[in-house]
């Protein structure tokens, strides 16, 4: 499900599996990541129909140039999602993917298209908050790699596979550029519920930064803190998906009939202990 006809490779909508006709969950990856992040999710949550926003510059699309601007990526993603425009769907994104999912939701509204029934953002500060760190995407190779080590980027072993890392660096730098050159523009809050996930040991995105997502919805807002660092979704995927399932069921129920459990504008914060 791709859109062609331009020099820039486009976003493709990749079907991961799940129950056909059920609520679709469209997932956006973190910097350098691809469809493989979410490949096991349909087995853990078979009641949902899973899709991934497949980006150029990674996995099977490694030879294609990555996006250099977030607005171009978002426009392409919205176009790629057209096959699902008649279905109920939710958006999920981790780190860079959280920002992508948020801007996709806003672009859909600008286009008067169907809105997501729920927005799940994970491991990314509220978009109106400035990045406290200086830009990293143009750092020298050694310093950039050290930063990737610091955040414990998955499958990143520069010492063991230096040639592979050098092949990955252009896409990683491009993804970091997308995020670190992002220019937030104020708009009315989204109306769909928003759930923000965070890692209890994430030194870059803490509960305070996640709580600020409250400003971006006029609906229900929830924070869910899970054990782990920035890439907690690697080790806490089952707990995360249980929360996704619970919120999707609640959202669907709320759409069908009055729901007493969570009124519009409410805030709920929970932490999971291991």
Describe the fold and architecture:
With 274 residues, the protein is an alpha/beta fold. The chain has one domain (12-271): Alpha/Beta hydrolase fold, catalytic domain (Rossmann fold), CATH 3.40.50.1820. Helices cover 31% and strands 16% of the residues. It contains 7 helices and 8 strands. Strands 1-3-2-4-5-6-7-8 form an 8-stranded mixed β-sheet, with helices on both faces. Helix 2 (70-80) packs across helix 3 (96-110).
| Count of runs of 4 or more consecutive helical residues | 7
> Total domains, how many?
1
Low-pLDDT stretches are: 1-6, 257-267
CATH first level: which class?
Alpha Beta
From the spread of the alpha carbons, the general shape counts as globular
Strand order of the largest sheet: 1-3-2-4-5-6-7-8
CATH fold title: Rossmann fold
Radius of gyration: 18 Å
Q: What is the CATH homology-level superfamily?
A: Alpha/Beta hydrolase fold, catalytic domain
**Coarse structural class:** alpha/beta
CATH architecture: 3-Layer(aba) Sandwich
**First-residue to last-residue Cα separation:** 40 Å
SSE arrangement, N to C: EEHEHEHEHHEHEHE
Biggest beta sheet summary = 8 strands, mixed
**Strand fraction band?**
15-25%
Mean pLDDT: 87
**Percent helix range:** 25-40%
Number of strands: 8
């Amino acid at each position: 499900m791709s859109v062609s006809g331009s020099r820039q490779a486009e976003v493709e909508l990749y079907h991961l599996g799940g129950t056909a006709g059920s609520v679709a969950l469209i997932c956006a990856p973190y910097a350098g990541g691809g469809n493989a992040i979410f490949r096991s999710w349909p087995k853990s949550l078979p009641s949902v129909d899973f899709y991934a926003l497949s980006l150029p510059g990674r996995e099977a699309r490694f030879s294609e140039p990555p996006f250099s601007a977030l607005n171009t990526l978002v426009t392409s993603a919205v176009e790629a999602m057209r096959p699902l425009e008649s279905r109920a769907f939710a958006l999920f994104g981790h780190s860079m993917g959280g920002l992508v999912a948020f801007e996709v939701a806003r672009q859909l509204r600008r286009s008067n298209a169907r809105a997501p029934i729920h927005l799940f953002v994970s491991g990314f500060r509220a978009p109106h908050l400035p990045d406290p760190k200086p830009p990293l995407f143009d750092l020298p190779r050694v310093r950039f790699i050290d930063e990737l080590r610091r955040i414990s980027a998955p499958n990143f072993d520069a010492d063991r596979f230096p040639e592979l890392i050098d092949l990955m660096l252009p896409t990683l730098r491009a993804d970091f550029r997308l995020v670190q050159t992002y220019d937030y523009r104020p708009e009315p809050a989204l109306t769909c519920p928003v759930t923000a996930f965070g890692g209890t040991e994430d030194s870059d995105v803490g509960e305070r930064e996640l709580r600020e997502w409250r400003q971006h919805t006029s609906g229900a807002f929830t924070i869910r803190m899970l054990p782990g660092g920035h890439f907690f979704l690697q080790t806490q995927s089952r707990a995360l998906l249980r929360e996704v399932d619970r919120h999707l069921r609640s959202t669907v129920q709320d759409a069908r009939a009055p729901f007493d459990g969570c009124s519009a504008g409410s805030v709920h914060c929970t932490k999971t202990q291991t």
